[in-house]
Amino acid sequence: MTRGLAHAPLLVMRFGFFLIACLGCTSTQPKPVARKGWVDHMQSADRHDRRAAEHERAAAAVEGAPVPERFDCGDPDLNDQLTTGGLRVTTWQPCFDQSDETAERHREAAMHEHDLARKDRAAASRLADAERLSCEGVPARELARSPFSHAKSIDRVEPMYDGTQLAGVRIIFKPVRGLNAAWLQRDIACQRARWAVFGKDPTWLPGDPSLVDGVAVDVFDRDGHVEVTVTTKQPDQAAVALARARGELGKDTAKR
Q1: Tens digit of pLDDT for each residue in 215-227?
Q2: How far is CA 137 from the centre of its chain?
Q3: Residue 141 belongs to a domain
Q4: What is the total count of domains within the chain?
Q5: Which of 82, 107, 135 is the last residue of a domain?
Q6: Within this chain, do residues 221 and 177 fall inside the same structural domain, yes or no?
Q7: Is 120 in contact with 185 (CB distance < 8 Å)?
Q8: Residues of 26-39 as b/e, b for ≥16 C-beta within 10 angstroms?
Q9: 162-216 pLDDT tens trace
Q10: Which of 88, 112, 135 is the last residue of a domain?
C-alpha cells in the first residue's frame, strides 16, 4: 500500500472474500465445507508419503521373492486332464514372470502418493506465505484479535438491504487516530490469511463479519470515519455477517 493511497480523501478498496460460513448460525444455515489448513495439509502429506513407502517396500519384496513364487503357470496337469469329446477344456497358460508387472504397479502407486504429498506441502507453503505477506507490518497485539473486536471504536452497525432482501452489514468506525481504510484493509486481509492457515475454522473470530463465505468487503475513508460494508447476494450468508458484526454469534453457536 503506497503512502499516497493511505492518505487519499476517499478510498474504496474492494476485495471479494470467498470464505466459509459459520456452522449452525441459524437453523437454515448450510453446513460449512471442510477446508484444509496448514496442519491438515502437512498431515495429509505425511500420510501420502507413508503410503508411498508401503508401495515401495511391496515392489522390493516382489522383486526379491524366490523365483518359483514369481511365476504364474496355472495348473498344467489339470490342463492335460480336463477334456470333453477328446478336446481340452482349458488352454495352456505360459509361465510368465509376474514380478515386473506387479512391481511396476507398486512403483506407479508410490509415485502417485509422492506427487500428492508434494501438492499438499506446496498448498501448506502457499497458506504460510500468504499469512506472512498479508500480516507483515500488523502489530503483534492485533494478530490474535479481529479489527471488529474494538467495540468501543465502532460507532454503529447497520443492516444493508437490496430492496426488501437482507444484503449484508455496514460497520462505521468512530474517528480513531491512525485508523484509515488502508490500515483496516491490511488487518482484515491478515485475519483472512490466518483463518485459511487454521483451516477456516467456523468458530474462529466469531465477531468478524468478513469471515463468511461468498461476501464482498468494501472499505471506505469517508468524512473522518472508516466504513466497512460486507455484502452478498445470499440472504442466509448476509444474516451470518450481520450476526457476527452484532456480536450475536458465539463459539458455542458456531459449533452446532
Answers
A1: 899 999 998 899 9
A2: 24
A3: no
A4: 2
A5: 135
A6: yes
A7: no
A8: eeebeebeeebbbe
A9: 999 999 999 999 999 999 999 999 999 898 889 889 888 878 899 999 998 778 9
A10: 135
Residues of the chain with pLDDT under 70: 1-34, 65-99, 250-256
Least Cα distance to 153 among 124, 184, 123 occurs for 184
Domain containing 70: what range?
39-135
Are 19 and 44 within one domain? no
In the numeric block, the cell 526379491 is attached to: 64
Using DSSP, state whether 69 is helix, strand or coil: helix
No. of H helices and E strands in the chain? Answer: 8, 9
Do 130 and 217 fall into the same domain? Answer: no
Show the cell assigned to 201: 475454522
CA atoms of 11 and 2, how far apart (whole Å):
12
Sign of CA dihedral 121, 123, 126, 130: negative
- Cell numbers at 63, concatenated: 522383486
| pTM attached to this predicted model | 0.64
Q: How far apart are the C-alpha atoms of 31 and 37, rounded to whole Å?
A: 18
Question: Which 8-state DSSP code applies to residue 65?
Answer: S
* 186: in domain: yes
